[in-house]
Amino acid sequence: MRPAVDQLDGAILREMFRGRHLWVGGVDPRQSAAELAERLGVTRTTIWSRLKAWRTCGFLEGFDVVPNPDLFGLRFGAGSLRVDDPVRKAAILEDLGQVRGIVGAQDTLGPWMVVLTACANGEEFQRCSGLLRGLSGVVEAIPLVTFACPVSQGRPTPMDWRILLELRRSSTQSLTEAADQLRLSSRTVLRRYTSMVRRNLIWYIPLLDYTKYGGVAMTRFNIYLHPTSDTGAVLERVRRQWPTHVDLADRSEFAHEAAQKVKHLVLFLQIPSAAGAEDVQKELLGWPDVAEVEVLFPRRTYRYPSTLSDMIEKRLAE
Asked: Are 30 and 174 in contact (CB under 8 A)?
C-alpha cells in the first residue's frame, strides 16, 4: 500500500540532498539521522520511521555508494535517450548494463530516460555515446555532458577500499551489516565511511522508485534562463514562490567545458497532479528571465555497479 505523503517527506529529501543534485546525494541518512532530525526539528525516531515506511512501500529500494570518479582519473557525464516505444524501456534499461562506462540511469515518464556515465576523456565519452545510440530501441541520444564534480580530498586507504567495495556489493545492506561481512566493528566502518563522505571521496545515491510514492507527483522542472538573466534573483523568487520545494539548485556551472555552460536551474516539487505541474510550468514561463521550462516525472533510479567496482578491485590488487 502506498503511504500518504506530506511535507515532512519532502523536507527529509531536501535535507538528504542539501547542496547536491537529487540523483547524487549529499547526506546519507544511515550515518546522520540525528543530523537530519536536528535540522528539521523532529526526533531521530521520526526520521527512522519515515525511512522505514519508504522501504516498506518500495519507494526507497536501497543505496548505491559511488567513489568520486577523479580517484580513477574519470569524470561523470550524463545524457538523455529517447526510445521508440516506452514499453521497450525495461529491455533497454537492462541492456545499459552491458555498456562499459554506464554507472546509473533514471527512467522518466514517457519515451525519455537519463544515463549517468564515468569516462576518462572526450574520446571515451564519444565511444560511450555511440554505443548508446546503437542500442536496439533507442531512436535519439542527446550528447553526453561532463560534470564539474567536487574534488576528492586525499585518497582511500586499503581498508577504505574494502569498505567501499563491500557496500557496493548490495544496495540494501546497512553499515552494520557491511561491518559484519568485513569482520570490522560498526564504529570503525561508520567512522571511515563518514570521513570518506566528508572528504568527497564517495557519494551515496538513494535508489528511489517514485511510482511507489503515492498521493503526489514528484516533478522535476529544468528551468533555462536567458543569457542576460540574474540567476540569483530568479533563485530567490523561486524560493519565495515555492518555499516547500524538495530541491532547488543552480546548475549554471554544472557542465565541465565552458562552451556547455548554460543558465540552468533545477526545481523539484511535490505536485498534487500532472495538471498542477502544468500550472507551475506556465507560471515560470511567464517570468521575463525564463526562456524554457522542461517538465519531467521521474519513475525510478537504476544502478550499474560493474564499471566502478572493477576499478576498486584493481586498486585492492595493486
From this structure: yes
Element holding 302 (H helix, E strand): strand 298-303
Burial of 288 (0-12, 13-18, 19+ CB in 10 A): exposed
The upper half-sphere exposure of residue 56, i.e. CA atoms within 13 Å in the direction of its Cβ, equals: 10
Express each pLDDT in 264-282 by its tens digit: 898 999 888 888 999 999 9
Per-residue pLDDT, 1: 43
How do residues 53-107 score in pLDDT, each as one tens digit?
A: 999 999 999 989 999 999 999 998 888 999 999 999 999 999 999 999 999 999 9
Number of domains in the chain: 1
Q: What is the DSSP letter of 137?
A: T
Looking at the domain assignment, is residue 22 inside a domain?
A: no
CATH of the domain at 218: 3.30.70.60
Whole-number Å distance between alpha carbons of 231 and 263: 7
Evaluated on CA atoms 166, 148, 93, 211, the torsion sign reads positive
Q: Which residues of the chain have pLDDT under 50?
A: 1-4, 256, 258
Distance in angstroms (rounded) separating the CA atoms of residues 220 and 268? 4
- What is the residue range of 234's domain? 212-300
In a domain, 170, yes or no: no
3-class DSSP state for residue 242? coil
Which DSSP symbol is given to 134?
Answer: T
Q: Terminal CA-to-CA distance of the chain, rounded, Å? A: 48
